[in-house]
Automatic annotation (TrEMBL):
Name of the protein described by the UniProt record: Hydroxyacid dehydrogenase
Coiled coil: none
Residue span, D-isomer specific 2-hydroxyacid dehydrogenase NAD-binding domain: 106-285
PANTHER family associated with the record: 2-HYDROXYACID DEHYDROGENASE HOMOLOG 1-RELATED
Residue ranges constituting the D-isomer specific 2-hydroxyacid dehydrogenase catalytic domain according to the UniProt record: 13-316
């Protein structure tokens, strides 16, 4: 079977090749789009990361396609329903980033609560070895962290928060009450969590049902001065509503690793990330040495197991 990989940097291609041996695989650094889909026209299997948007048009242009292995946990960039109608299976990497992303979420939180990044930039520019009034931060201890989505990442966020002696409230479609008891936190409904959180952090996948889960209607229900952290998916937050919430100082700051429309950068995104109280990063929460190694290992296993007739980590 012919496998074509997209979005694999050169350095990683050699590692993948070692995993695959002499099998029929080829690699491209670029994302898969309608303009370069001919590169995959003979593929039985394709593997992509999150910037290749595998819509109906692309899927239809790969006639032999049987399997899509995304090198990510999230799979909202793939039209899984349409793939299913054509008998195409989709796999993901379910667990590579559960500590990685949780740690990064706290990186954003600490940068907002203690202005570490802003102070670093200021200090390097000025060599002024004095703390200034704007550098005053706040303790996490005793603050309420609202976690939306307590899957693998959200659970690690809860554990880290407990280390900081924060109060944790959580909302999930499928609450894990045993885990909450063991880790001394409480599940509440969505509106209670967003109304009571000092810091709100999103850890759900993006699905059709939760598009703009954070929007104009519920931002006004939030505690004045709340901080919003999003390391999940940009589409969970209505960008315009977030800018308005920040302008109106309902939201004191935002830590964003993901933006609506991702790399198809909009003027609105540009405005958002340049706001002084926004800490933004280019979708890199997953990006550690350990997580990349785990992604490559699981993606290879997903493909080999599919070829051997034992598909694993199927999401559709
Ligand atoms: P998971 O599948 O283990 O957990 C997701 C949780 O969200 C589940 O408990 C589920 O019941 C809950 N959920 C789903 N829809 C919900 C809704 N509408 N309302 C409330 N709860 C809902 O997923 P995991 O591994 O924790 O990852 C979460 C998300 O983080 C991924 O789907 C992905 O989009 C994002 N992610 C971002 C990365 C980055 O680099 N920024 C890297 C890895 C994941």
């Amino acid at each position: 079977m012919k496998t074509v990989f997209f979005e694999v940097p050169k350095a990683r291609q050699d590692i993948f090749l070692k995993f695959f041996g002499n099998e029929n695989v080829s690699f491209y650094e670029e994302k898969l789009t309608e303009n370069n889909v001919n590169l995959a026209k003979d593929a039985d299997i394709i593997s992509v990361f999150v910037d290749s948007h595998l819509n109906k048009n692309i899927i239809d242009k790969i006639p032999n396609l049987k399997f899509i292995a995304t090198q990510s946990t999230g799979f909202s960039h793939i039209d899984c329903e349409y793939a299913s109608t054509k008998g195409i299976k989709v796999s993901n990497v379910p667990a590579y980033g559960s500590h990685t992303v949780a740690e990064f979420a706290f990186g954003l939180i600490l940068n907002l609560s203690r202005k570490i990044s802003d102070a670093n930039v200021y200090f390097k520019e000025t060599l002024d070895y004095n703390y200034l009034p704007w550098m005053e931060g706040f303790n996490l201890e005793g603050k309420t962290l609202g976690i939306i989505g307590t899957g693998k990442i959200g659970k690690n966020v809860a554990k880290i928060a407990k280390g900081f002696e924060m109060n944790v409230l959580a909302y999930d479609l499928y609450p894990d009450l045993n885990f909450a008891k063991e880790n001394n936190f409480t599940y509440k409904n969505f509106s209670e969590v967003i109304a009571q959180a000092d810091i709100l952090t999103l850890h759900t996948p993006y699905t059709k049902e939760n598009y703009h889960m954070i929007n104009k209607e519920n931002i006004i229900m939030m505690k004045k001065g709340v901080y919003l952290i999003n390391t999940a998916r940009g589409e969970l937050v209505d960008t315009e509503a977030l800018i308005q919430g920040l302008d109106q100082k309902i939201i004191a700051g935002a830590g964003l690793d993901v933006l609506e429309n991702g790399k198809d950068f909009t003027a609105l995104n540009n405005r958002l990330i340049k706001m002084p109280n926004v800490m933004a990063s280019p979708h890199m929460a997953f990006y550690t040495h350990e997580a990349v190694a785990s992604i490559m290992k699981t993606t290879t296993e997903n493909i080999k197991n599919f070829i051997a007739g034992r598909p694993e980590n199927i999401v559709n």
